[in-house]
Specification:
Elements lengths: L3 E6 L5 E6 L6 E7 L13 H9 L12 H7 L3 E6 L4 E7 L4 H13 L5 H20 L1 H10 L24 H14 L5 E7 L3 H12 L28 E6 L6 H12 L7 H7 L3 E12 L2 E10 L5 H16 L3 H18 L2 H9 L9 H12 L33 E4 L9 E8 L8 H16 L3 E7 L2 E8 L1 H16 L18 H13 L21 E7 L3 H10 L6 E2 L11 E5 L7 E8 L5 H22 L5 E9 L2 E10 L4 H14 L4 H9 L9 H13 L6 H9 L3 H12 L5 E5 L10
Parallel strand pairs: 2-6, 10-14, 14-15, 16-20
Antiparallel strand pairs: 1-2, 3-5, 3-6, 4-5, 7-9, 8-9, 11-13, 11-14, 12-13, 17-19, 17-20, 18-19
Length: 761
């Protein structure tokens, strides 16, 4: 059943967008304020960003412990906010029954915030910590350098993030400006509130009207037009950075740009990237909009080319391809775009849909205004010499029918009924134990890259990852797309067409330290076999002793038969993996990471018999960990705690990245929190148990649960976990905490420094 959409304007000027999507399991709200960092007074950079942070510190009606952040996290939902150049967005996703309580907290904290001076000091330090991390992040600095390409007078080239020095809290004029910014922009006529969920339009409208009315009525703010983007040619920082700027484009130009970027990044034969790949030049390409407001657009193409590529010729080819696209029938381009958008809408979460609606960019084809904007956009782009270009053929991954072939499933593949086929979301996991291979070879990654790019366009997740002595292939998305992609993926993995020497080197942006630790965790949990070969003698030689297991989730019987035919050429032999290692005691692993900030990851694995207690303990610790380490101690902005399943191991995971505390100090704070214990078990127990049902979890979460249970040979039924959580008592948590403190089930501590004492091994 297709989504139904409704637009309403409230008496206070607030624009309400409502989307009824029966297939959704969750509901979401996205609130966009038409004001951002460029609208703040120039003498106080970061004021808008600072205000966004202050909203989440609680109000008299909903203090921090019961505010939007804690409320949504306790329900297993997600919540965040973002300050952009001309807009500020607040958004959350929760179970449908909790949409009202979340929406009340969101609207109340924005309409009636507590901007008391005493709460501003700690949050300014959080802003400053973010600034330090931003200033040390090469990717962030490269992005900032791109914005310096426009005219010097345009606010895009200025600093807007804020830090300790740009936010003078004791300055009365600054405090007046902060309150004035809130009063001026956080009112009805400046706000779009979008709700999406399985509820009826009438139910969504009632909620939107009730809580949207909390904002005061005021006239729309007359924001002056921005200065010109250009005072001459764009000053591109490198030949691999292709920048395009536009002035005075018609409405819907940002939607038209989305269509153009979809065409541009299609790397199949016939297009620009296909030509670069055919010449052996292309490593990767990323295209994105950097800015869009009041008819202005700035967008960027980042090319990664091989050393023997001709960057100037690549640019000339792009101009030629743009000329070809300009000559095409816009309606034909729009028809192909509509097919992509339809699949994206089918795959989108409630939060995705609400955010797109609040931005005025739903997953749909261009309307007449959008087509006019596309014509204007293309006319404003460079021209080039004619070339032998063609539009790509229909994408098989978007097919609405299955291949004709049928065959039984291979013996090593299990089938899970955890996710009904009616969800139209299927997941296939294939995992090989590879005792003679150390990581996925570059030539395999290179061979798989074109299919990855096609899968991403078709909203199909396709990942091949190496962890210890294992390779794991994951395909997740529409069931037909999984079937249509897996045979090609297996062929590319088992017999890649490129020899090792032909694979280009790729340069990935360095991850922040805490993310580098998260990436290293699976390898530490399941280390590679002692005898590995650093270099493979030939492509495919590593399959000789490979043993695999797999799981299919969310497929109906007919689709499983088509999947069976696609899996006939799976490399290796089905077989059980070797026994997993067990842990006890405290283990410290130093991981070298980029960046100078201290980072620590603590993982405490648990046996199956104590996972219900562990999940409840993690649920109860989430708020106190955030409150103590981020709010009170201000260790940094990257602070989290959760119960996680990693490579078949389940346990508590704590992570902190700090610009001022050492790894030992971070660990000390975590231990102190564990020593203090937890309470409020009955209410939290019921709240957590309700999250463990197929109807409450996202499709991807259900599939991940089934796979982790399959690898760990545990009871895969969510109802079993629900019942187990409801039986956990306070004494169970107290006993588990003591086991944690003595590392009875093992501590795996990953850090970017050596162990602080000799108590680790």
């Amino acid at each position: 059943m297709p989504d139904t959409l409704r637009h309403i304007s409230l008496a206070n000027g607030l624009h309400l967008t409502l989307r009824h999507a029966p297939r959704l399991k969750r509901a979401a709200a996205a609130l966009r304020v038409q004001a951002g960092s460029h609208d703040a007074p120039a003498q106080w950079p970061g004021l808008a960003h600072f205000l966004e942070h202050l909203f989440f510190l609680g109000t008299e009606r909903f203090p921090l412990a019961d505010g939007l952040m804690r409320h949504v996290q306790a329900l297993g939902g997600q919540v965040n906010a973002s300050t952009q150049a001309r807009t500020t967005d607040f958004f959350f996703e929760v179970p449908p029954a909790a949409l009202a309580s979340g929406l009340e907290r969101l609207c109340q904290m924005l309409a009636e915030p507590d901007l008391g001076l005493e709460r501003q000091q700690p949050e300014r330090e959080v802003i400053h910590a973010e600034f330090i991390a931003w200033s040390r992040n090469p990717e962030a600095q490269r992005q900032f350098a791109l914005l310096q390409s426009v005219a010097p007078g345009h606010p895009l080239g200025a600093f807007h993030a804020g830090n300790r020095y740009s936010l003078p809290l004791r300055d009365a004029a600054f405090q007046c400006a902060l309150k004035r910014f809130h009063q001026r922009f956080y009112q009805g006529s400046q706000i779009t509130l979008s709700l999406a969920g399985p509820q009826s339009l009438e139910a969504l409208e009632a909620l939107g009207r009730r809580f949207g009315a909390m904002f005061k009525t005021a006239a729309p703010v007359d924001r002056p037009p921005p200065p010109w983007l250009l005072d001459g040619p764009l000053r591109s920082p490198s030949t691999n950075d292709l920048l395009f700027a536009h002035e005075a484009l018609p409405e819907q130009a940002q939607n038209a740009l989305e269509l153009l970027l979809d065409l541009l990044t299609d790397s199949r034969p016939g297009g620009w990237l296909g030509e670069l790949r055919q010449r052996g030049w292309l490593q990767s390409c990323k295209a994105q909009r950097l800015y869009g407001h009041a008819g202005q657009l700035l967008w960027h193409v980042r090319l990664q080319l091989n050393s023997d590529a001709n960057a100037e010729q690549a640019r000339t080819l792009l101009h030629s391809w743009l000329s070809f696209i300009r000559q095409q029938d816009g309606q034909r381009l729009n028809t192909a775009f509509a097919q992509l958008q339809q699949r994206r809408e089918q795959a989108a979460s409630a939060l995705d849909l609400a955010q797109r609606d609040s931005a005025g960019q739903p997953y749909s084809a261009l309307d007449s205004q959008g087509l006019a904007a596309l014509t204007a956009l293309l006319a404003d782009l460079p021209e080039g010499p004619a070339g032998h270009w063609q539009l790509p053929a229909n994408e098989p991954l978007l097919a609405t029918a299955l291949p004709a072939r049928r065959a039984p499933l291979p013996a090593g593949l299990a089938v899970s009924q955890a996710l009904p086929a009616s969800r139209q979301f299927a997941t296939l996991y294939l995992r090989w134990h590879m005792p003679s291979a150390a990581g996925v070879p570059p030539f395999v990654e290179h061979a798989l890259q074109p299919l990855r790019e096609r899968a991403e366009r078709a909203t199909l997740q396709l990942d091949l990852e190496a962890s210890g002595a294992y390779w794991q292939l994951l395909l997740a998305g529409h069931p037909f797309a999984v079937v249509n992609a897996v045979e090609e993926a297996l062929s590319l993995i088992s017999t890649p067409p490129h020899a090792p020497g032909q694979a280009p080197s790729t340069s990935e942006p360095a991850p922040m330290p805490i993310r580098a630790l998260l990436k290293a965790l699976p390898d530490i949990l399941q280390p590679a076999a002692a005898q590995t070969h650093p270099a493979l003698s030939a492509p495919g030689s590593h399959w000789q002793h490979a043993r695999w297991q797999g799981l299919a989730v969310g497929f109906e019987p007919t689709t499983l038969e088509a999947l069976g035919a696609a899996l006939q050429a799976i490399p290796g032999q089905p077989g059980e993996p070797p026994a997993r290692p067990t842990f006890s005691g405290r283990h410290w692993h130093q991981v070298h990471t980029p960046g100078s900030e201290a980072a620590l990851l603590l993982f405490c694995p648990l046996p199956e018999t104590q996972q219900a207690s562990g999940r409840l303990l993690a649920h109860l610790l989430q708020g106190p960990v955030y409150q103590r380490l981020r709010v009170e101690l201000q260790l940094g902005y990257a602070v989290f705690s959760a119960f996680r399943q990693v490579a078949g191991f389940a346990g508590l995971l704590f992570g902190v990245q700090s610009p001022k505390a050492s790894q030992g100090e971070i660990l000390g704070h975590l231990i102190q929190l564990l020593q203090e214990g937890v309470n409020n078990v009955p209410a939290s127990r019921q709240q957590l148990a309700e999250q463990f049902s197929e109807a409450a979890m996202t499709n991807a979460e259900v599939a991940h649960w089934a796979w982790q249970a399959h690898m760990a040979t545990q009871n895969p039924r969510l109802s079993h976990m629900q019942r187990s959580i409801l039986t956990v008592e306070q004494e169970d948590l107290d006993a588990l905490l003591q086991q944690f403190l003595t590392a009875e089930h093992g501590w795996l501590c990953l850090a970017n420094a050596a162990a602080p004492d000799d108590q680790w091994h």
